[in-house]
Amino acid sequence: MSGNLPVQSVTADYAQRVADDLAANRSEQERVRSELARLQDELVRLEDSEQVLTKMQEVLGGTPEQAAKQRKNRKGAAVPAARGSNSKTAAGKSAAAAGRKASKKTVSPKKVGEPTWLELTTAYLGGQSEPRSAAEVAASLTEAHPERTVQVTVVRNSLEQGVAQGLLERSKQGRSVFYNPVSASSAPSGS
């Protein structure tokens, strides 16, 4: 029987190594999934930003080449006296206001009578027993409201707005952020 003892020991050692390698592999998969989710969120945010910037560019007069042509064409035109020395400031302010209006329409189109993203996110979380991440909330809202374009960044901003208004609580677990409704015990007393 002493001949079997070393074989069993070697088998047990290999079994332990395989178990350790499997655990390490699963841990690495989870890390990569988390990084992938973060990169997907970042890509969505960048795509949203590109849409806003494109709309602003259209509002401000198209591409830089088109803007240069317009400046050349306008050099001969007289500036109205009412604008005076503040013409650049006024034009900049009105262009910025137009850009903000365009970006609001692009980022969160809302029809009259539809609930806001804040209302949707707080209502969804109110029906949950556990905290949820922005990606989980966005996925659930996509299923519940297929007629609306759900973007994770918009949902995340709405969740943060809920936190700022005291409607939601934020908690971190590692690098992940989770949201849940403010419980009655932690709600501020005496409004």
UniProtKB/TrEMBL annotation:
Coiled-coil segments on the chain, per record: 22-56
Domain of life of the native organism: Bacteria
UniProt keyword list: Coiled coil
Region (Disordered): 56-113
Compositional bias per record (Low complexity), positions renumbered to this chain: 84-100
Protein name: Regulatory protein
Provenance organism: Streptomyces durocortorensis
Higher taxonomy: Bacteria, Bacillati, Actinomycetota, Actinomycetes, Kitasatosporales
